[in-house]
UniProtKB/TrEMBL annotation:
WD repeats lie at residues 83-125, 393-435, 566-608, 609-651. The gene is WDR17. This is Gem-associated protein 5 TPR domain-containing protein. Keywords: Repeat, Signal, WD repeat. Residues 798-954 form the Gem-associated protein 5 TPR domain. Gene3D superfamilies: YVTN repeat-like/Quinoprotein amine dehydrogenase. It comes from Oncorhynchus tshawytscha (Chinook salmon). Residues 1-26 form the signal peptide. Pfam families: TPR_GEMI5 (PF23774), WD40 (PF00400).
Length: 1246
């Protein structure tokens, strides 16, 4: 009901409001797209910072909790949610033992939160915990109770709900003599609890027994004042009295809590200095694991032995926390193969199975350990198979203050953090490739050396500034001119690589040469926070100061006085940035919440950008469009501004804390990175803000519509133009070419506008398919997804062989087929070399595919196609080729479901499947890229290209881009009906409508009226509707068209294709006419019929998520409106139930699956007969845009379709409040043009 607004009583004065509502939805939908996320690492400060429950695990960064969930289809863990309600350091997390949807977390601001993971919302919060909770835990036997404790106690018990809701104090657990490190309830014995103290002792309480305070200190400490904190405590799950205790220096003991004795002391090799963490293995009674805190050695133990059974070195850095998953999650069956597995990432290497050395008596426990390391790394380790199922290495664990792309290799992004390190990331794989030595205090700022010097200058809070040689991994220079004062900004001059500027809390901006010779010391009246070299004059630098002023200095003079001082800010100025495209223009961000634009040549502030509600930190000019400026603030948002008139073009809400750094990609000027106090780096595409530019390229407009000078671009209201180096270089290269100019133009501009993430790989594959000389392929091509004909040349089989454990194939040949089948059933990796030896490629491919190890499956299929695996002669090349195609298709779907439509398209192109490649781009809403690729591929992609052009034209059917829409449609052959739709929907005056008719080569308004009447007399309904829509009385089309559709539906053997063309035409009736009160009945009938046929089209397209919503929408309209349509609400319910039963389309919380009845099967078969086949191959399946898998920290929207939180991009409907996911909006608009609110407004989510 909430999704259907009644329009029965609409009147003419109100209609303009409704016409403008369409604009509201477009303004509210964020245009800047989030395209990448670098998650934070796990904090090393507190103990209980990782937890797991069923198919989820979570870990705490300093300010946010990251929740990963198993994707059952691909057996890999994916980031599902980021919980960032805590504003101070998170101190502990505990998963509810009896409800896998709920966990509790505590933080240093005395706050406790109960969080529902599935709904991603707060269930309860306790704002004053009377001290910082050092440890917390659910009360094992209370329905909704959490216990927490700080320092010396007492133990507080918080009943969240029920009659006794509130906080009480444990009667005995208080007045301790030593601080509490952590505590644990006994999982079985009600009310029994143990505390571990910093002095190494334990305190044990249980109802009905004598309390034991400060007992069981390690023997070596007895009689001393030395401290040896308890670092881990876990009750033995098979005993009521035994527990494992780890002390920082005295290792691990098994103690008896009743007899107060030490049962076993476990012996470590001398090299293992201390243990921070341990965990029982629930699937293997008597077994537990520990993690060394100096080096990342995982040790496996059994309580019956005092020495470890096995040791694995997993990482160079030590462990911080460990948690073993209680039980393998319930596995959903896989569609590809009957075999199944758990937790195997598609990227994990299959390594040799474990060999048990001296410990043959003990088999390794089948378990999965969540491992958190001191360097912030987080992973999930499969102990049985001895391999990582998931590993996120080297994440920052604290605020990231700065980020910068490398000037000569923009695939590398450097970040500077409060955690004392600079890290360098590969933005294509989102993995860390270098990290600085650390221990620098806080690193506030960084600056890459110009060119290919491979050095980074860093500014710190207490260690001065430094130059770090990234490749050598060492510090090569330090600058200490500011003494002990913090340095807030460092800037390496890119016009004179010998000069580096720093500014500091001591009030100085110092310019020195890289060998340390001071050139200038510019004294300010207070702390200096920011500085920036002019991009046009190597001797000019600007600074931002605590005294609220901006200063400009000129280095070519000996004076230490500023050339200019700009006043106007009402609070301290932080960063300053010179415009790269407009000489003399600079901006400044201030704690007053504004950004000011200054003109050095006029000595004036020429604009004030107001909108942030907190201090501004990040500032970034676009390097191609001179008026675009981006700012990041402590209000958690990023704003993009049009500095010509001060308009805020878009606001991004995804960060969960203060936004500090912004940086522009050097060769993809509309890709931006941001960093924040939430410890994440996010990648963004600004392309939607200037999308008409790419359409000008597509439609082959003149250069004047694409590239211009800054004066033209800065005219208020003018369409965007490219004015920077990237576009200039592209034009210069194109001017040199004598052939393939159009192809290169489409490729180069497409790459300029696309974010990283596979577009370069995609274009290489397009070149291969179009017959490019192999010798011209770039070196990077061999590292990406390659065309199948190149596999031998690039020797991928060396990689393919790595999927086999290093054992003799001869040995495996002796094994019987029965043994292989047995291993298959056991899901044992030992089967791999056997299958290779016997050439059973299909079995091996199925083995990997069923585990989600799609890269391995691909390598095996490739190896068979190349002849590198001996295949029995009965298996022909054609079979191997088909196998390769199947695996590529599956890998493509994995990329697609991971929000990477471009890489999915690459997988299809690798096996020459242009149809599915285009479909991937369309379903990922990469429309402009799809057109570019389709135009270059030519005939093989024509059908898909024409469909994309039609969708793209719909996107631009809005003021002021109607002409662009017409240009796009004119690129399609047989475009008369498409152009008629555009003209029908055009909302101008009569003379303006006639002009667009003329541009489209269509008859005038009056001529259309005559043609419509002629078509009616001839019984040509389609043309009658078409011409009436373009006439002065478009509403006449409604009456003719709806009567025809109703007549068709009354016939028993109607099909969707017999009614959809007319409804599709009627969907383009002008909104201002459709919503008039006198057409209420006709409008209602049009919306109902469009909704119903839309539901059927959604079934045909497999848009499962919106089918119920479309049926519900249609039923609601029929209940509320007085209409006579040949549909029955009861019949709609029968159809929907039959579809749900026959396709298993039920939500996770609905009733268990029951097979469809015979009547439902018959109803579903009848439904499919009406649908017939989808004319465009490959478009079946849900849309999934880039960023759909990236959780937002802060901007939580609930879908009015499902009532659940929307993951990924959000689309607001025309009331400005109701929201659905962008994916659902795209699918809805493709099958039903009208808004889900029932207003008659057309959706435009493209």
């Amino acid at each position: 009901d909430s999704c259907t607004t009644s329009l029965e009583s609409i009147s003419l004065p109100v209609f303009w409001c409704l016409c403008s509502l369409l604009c509201v939805s477009q303004i509210k939908m964020s245009q800047v797209k989030q395209v990448g996320l670098l998650a934070a690492g796990c904090q090393p400060w507190n103990k209980d910072v990782c937890a797991a429950s069923e198919d989820r695990f979570a870990y705490c960064a300093t300010l946010a909790i990251y929740v990963y969930q198993l994707d059952h289809r691909y057996n890999e863990f994916k980031l599902r949610a980021i919980m960032s309600e805590h504003k101070k350091t998170i101190t502990a997390i505990s998963w509810c033992p009896h409800n896998p949807e709920v966990f509790a977390s505590a933080s240093a601001d005395n706050l406790l939160i109960i969080w529902n993971v599935a709904e991603q919302k707060i269930v309860a919060r306790l704002d004053n915990t009377k001290g910082i909770p050092a440890s917390l835990s659910w009360c094992w036997n209370a329905g909704d109770g959490v216990a927490f404790v700080s320092h010396r106690g007492p133990l507080y018990l918080w009943a969240i709900s029920g009659l006794d809701a509130g906080v009480t104090i444990h009667k005995e657990a208080h007045s301790f003599l030593s601080d509490i490190c952590l505590f644990r309830w006994h999982p079985v014995k009600k009310g029994k609890v143990v505390f571990g103290h910093t002095d190494g002792s334990l305190s044990i309480f249980q109802p009905g027994s004598k309390n034991q305070k400060h007992v069981l200190r390690p023997e070596s400490l007895e009689g001393t004042d030395e401290e040896d904190p308890v670092t881990a405590l876990e009750w033995d799950p098979l005993s009521t009295d035994y527990l494992l205790v780890a002390n920082q220096h005295n290792g691990i003991r098994m103690v008896d809590s009743e007899g107060l004795t030490c049962v076993t002391t476990f012996s470590f090799p001398s090299s293992a200095a201390s243990v921070q963490c341990l965990a029982w293995v629930p699937s293997a009674p008597g077994m537990f694991i520990t993690g060394d805190s100096q080096v990342g050695v995982l040790r496996i133990w059994n309580v019956s032995r005092s020495t470890p059974l096995d040791n694995f070195k997993l990482k160079k850095t030590g462990f911080h926390a460990l948690h073993v998953l209680n039980s393998p999650p319930a596995k959903k069956c896989n569609s590809i193969s009957p075999t199944k597995s758990h937790y195997t990432s598609s990227t994990s290497e299959a390594v040799p199975p474990p060999t048990l050395s001296q410990n043959q008596a003990f088999s390794l426990p089948p378990g999965h350990a969540v491992c958190c390391f001191m360097d912030g790394g987080v992973g999930l380790y499969d102990m049985g198979a001895k391999k990582w199922d998931f590993l996120r290495d080297l994440g920052h664990v604290e605020t990231i203050f700065d980020c910068k792309f490398k000037p000569d290799d923009p695939n590398l992004l450097a970040t500077a953090s409060f955690d004392g390190t600079i890290k360098v990331w590969d933005i294509n794989t989102l993995t860390a490739v270098y990290t600085s030595p650390g221990n620098e205090g806080v690193v506030y700022s960084l600056s890459w050396a110009p060119g290919d010097l491979n050095c980074i200058a860093g500014a710190t809070s207490r260690n001065g500034a430094f130059i770090w040689d990234v490749k050598k991994g060492k510090m090569i220079t330090r600058f200490n001119e500011h003494g002990n004062h913090g340095i807030f900004c460092i800037a390496w001059s890119h016009k004179d690589s010998k000069r580096i500027a720093t500014c500091s809390g001591d009030g100085f901006c110092i310019i020195r040469t890289i060998d340390g010779r001071v050139l200038h010391k510019y004294k300010h009246p207070a702390a200096v926070f920011g500085c920036d070299w002019s991009q046009n004059n190597k001797d000019m630098i600007a600074t931002g100061c605590e005294d609220k002023n901006v200063r400009v200095y000129y280095l070519a003079t000996s004076s230490d006085q500023p050339l200019k001082v700009f006043t106007g800010h009402l609070a301290k100025v932080f960063h300053v940035r010179w415009s790269p495209l407009r000489e003399g223009i600079l901006c400044s961000g201030s704690d007053d919440g504004t950004v000011r634009i200054w003109d050095y040549t006029q000595d004036a502030c020429i604009n004030v950008l107001s909108g942030h509600t907190a201090p501004v930190r990040g500032l970034m000019w676009n390097t191609e469009v001179p008026y675009l400026l981006t700012s990041g603030s402590w209000d958690y948002t990023i704003k993009v501004w049009d500095t010509r008139d001060g308009t805020c073009l878009d606001t991004c809400y995804d960060h969960g804390a203060d936004v500090y750094g912004l940086t522009c990609h050097p060769s993809r000027p509309f890709t931006m990175a941001s960093c924040s106090r939430d410890s994440t780096v996010r990648l963004w595409s600004l392309t939607p803000l200037i999308a008409p530019l790419l359409v000008n390229v597509l439609a082959d407009h003149s250069w004047d519509d694409i590239i211009g000078n800054t004066d033209r671009a800065m005219v208020p209201g003018a369409t965007p133009l490219l004015c920077g180096k990237v576009s200039r270089d592209i034009k210069q290269e194109l001017d040199k070419l004598s052939s393939e100019v159009r192809v290169k133009k489409l490729r180069w501009f497409s790459e300029c506008f696309s974010p990283p993430g596979g577009s370069h790989n995609l274009w290489d594959l397009v070149s291969v398919i179009n017959g490019q000389d192999d010798s011209l392929l770039p070196q990077s091509y061999g590292k990406g997804i390659m065309h199948m004909k190149h596999l031998v040349r690039f020797k991928t089989w060396d990689k393919a062989l790595s999927v086999a454990p290093g054992v003799s194939i001869k040995y495996w040949k002796k094994l019987m087929q029965r043994r292989a089948d047995q291993l298959m059933q056991e899901e044992n990796h030992d089967v791999i070399p056997y299958c290779i030896a016997t050439g059973d490629v299909r079995k091996l491919v199925n083995f990997f595919t069923a585990r989600g190890q799609l890269n391995e499956a691909l390598l095996v299929a490739q190896g068979a196609c190349e002849g590198n695996i001996h295949v029995p002669q009965t298996a022909c090349n054609l079979c191997c080729s088909r196998l390769l195609q199947c695996v590529c298709k599956e890998l493509a779907e994995w990329y697609f479901q991971d929000g990477r439509a471009v890489l999915a398209a690459c997988c299809h192109l690798a096996v020459d499947n242009t149809e599915l490649a285009m479909a991937s781009l369309i379903r990922g809403n990469e429309l402009e890229l799809a057109v570019c690729v389709g135009l270059v591929l030519g005939e093989s992609a024509n059908q898909a290209t024409h469909y994309v052009l039609e969708l793209l034209a719909r996107k631009y059917m809005t003021t002021p881009t109607w002409d662009l829409a017409a240009d796009l449609l004119q690129m399609i052959p047989d475009n008369e009906v498409l152009l008629a739709k555009l003209c029908a929907f055009y909302p101008g005056s009569s003379s303006e409508i006639d002009q667009i008719h003329e541009k489209c080569g269509l008859p005038s308004l009056e001529e259309c009226q005559a043609l419509a009447e002629s078509a009616v007399s001839e019984g040509d309904i389609f043309n009658a509707v078409k011409y009436y829509l373009m006439s002065p009385e478009p509403e006449a089309a409604l009456l003719v068209g709806i009567a025809h559709v109703k007549e068709q539906l009354s016939d028993s053997d109607w099909t969707v294709d017999s009614v959809h063309p007319i409804l599709d035409l009627l969907g383009y009736i002008r909104t201002d006419r459709l919503i008039l009160a006198k057409f209420t009945e006709a409008r209602s009938e049009l919306l109902i019929l469009s909704g119903y046929i839309g539901a059927l089209l959604a079934i045909r397209r497999q848009y499962s998520s919106i089918v119920p919503a479309l049926y519900e929408y249609t039923s609601q309209l029929m209940k509320r409106r007085e209409v006579s349509v040949p549909l029955q609400i009861e019949q709609l319910s029968v159809e929907l139930e039959a579809w749900m039963a026959c396709t298993h389309s039920r939500g996770p919380d609905e009733a268990p699956y029951t097979p469809p009845s015979e009547a439902q099967k018959a109803e579903h078969a009848h439904l499919l007969d009406r649908l017939q086949e989808e004319p465009l191959r490959g478009l079946e399946g849900p849309d999934y845009v880039t960023g759909s898998n990236l959780p937002s920290h802060s901007d939580v929207q609930v879908s009015c379709f499902t009532g659940l939180r929307i993951q990924g991009p959000v689309f607001f409907l025309e009331d400005g409040k109701s929201a659905i996911s962008l994916n659902d909006a795209l699918m809805w608009a493709k099958v039903n043009p009208f808004s889900p609110l029932g207003t008659g407004v057309r959706l435009n989510p493209f």
